[in-house]
Specification:
By secondary structure, the protein is an alpha/beta fold. The protein has one domain: Rossmann fold. It is 45% helix and 17% strand. The N terminus is likely disordered. Bound molecules: S-adenosylmethionine. The site of S-adenosylmethionine (SAM) has 24 residues, from helix 2, helix 6 and strand 2. This is Gamma-tocopherol methyltransferase. Keywords: Methyltransferase, S-adenosyl-L-methionine, Transferase. Belongs to the class I-like SAM-binding methyltransferase superfamily. gTMT family. One of its GO terms (biological process) is methylation.
Length: 395
Amino acid sequence: MSTPQVPQNPGEETTDLSKRYDIPLGLAHTTMQALKDRIKVHYDLASDYYLKLWGEHIHHGYWPTAASKATESKETAQLNLIHLLLTTAAVTNEAVQVEAASHATAATAADTGTAVPIAVANDTHVASTERTPQHPLRILDVGCGVGGTTRYLAKVLGAQVTGITISGKQVQIAQRLSRAAAITKSGGNVLSNDEGVVLNRADGATETDAEFITIGEKGGQVKFVELDAEKMGEYFTAEAGDAQGFDVVWISEALSHFPNKALFFQNAHRLLRPGGKLVLADWFKAEELGEGVFDADIKPIEDGMLLPPLCTQQDYVNLATTAGLQVLGGPKDISLDVSKTWDISWSLIQNPSLWAFAFSQGRDGIAFLQAFRAMRRGYANGSFRYAVMAFSKNA
Ligand SMILES: C[S@@+](CC[C@H](N)C(=O)[O-])C[C@H]1O[C@@H](n2cnc3c(N)ncnc32)[C@H](O)[C@@H]1O
């Protein structure tokens, strides 16, 4: 890709609201711990708003075709992204194919009148990751938000999925939403309920919030833990022992928040079972950006979105392979097919009470909303990128 030029009109598409709340750029991150504290506060405060405005998935939508861009909702597009990740990493089963195909119907009907599984199109390495009743697929969803993906994976794969997030508030919301979604009953005992501090299990033992909630008809399970991902290596090794290991470590739009990305890849390698897979979606800067473009496009994103210095896609590949992982799929750059996310988001936040709320949270709140405009600019200029990729651990 050629180096993007300094944008001619970096302040394009301001609105009256965004102009009223303009802020000077750049609150330097004093220490990485201070940055993590700000990230935690941000998600503790903003997660109810995310849920209301953007739904249970706090990630981009993926609109892979012209028809999907014209017709598909953000909710469908967010599931499209999950399907793309599943197929990029070859974590797929019949249920996933059926779900993907049903989501593709609307996208393709206008063009061809036939349904094509969009998540499968153009992807390599499609094979199945076996799951048996004795051993449900064990997945670790790192930086799980309010658990939208965690629940979805449990539902379509019948997997046992553990979500971790640095935000205690997100854990509470994720547990509440999961209990509401739970349908499994056993022996007349309700396994999960809406209040559910203590739940009765069929075997008579009690189940606390820290334990799995059964979800979906395939017997998938979810649980959520408030945990700084930098500690996940010791935490899960102590909990399960190295022998068990996860089949899949999943990380969607969270790694860009982590100060120590090398440590994440080392921990992923440590926690995966031999043959296990790391599945990843994230935000990147383009290769070889000039200073002008970097300052105009990338800095406001790092600032407002609470990110340590953004990496390139190749940086992640290098870190993963240094940690002992093999490239399994991607990197697949889908910037052009996800950028619509920020057109929708920018229009969703044109609401005075939202800006007033952000203002009441201090500078970080306003910088966050202002960064939405920077995201659109970065995508338009090609300086800001989005990609998915997958890695495997030697069997
Ligand atoms: C943009 S949201 C993505 C949520 C979710 N993965 C999804 O795709 O819907 C980023 C998530 O990363 C989490 N996060 C950021 N830094 C973290 C850290 N150090 N440890 C654990 N979670 C972290 C946040 O709490 C939040 O849940």
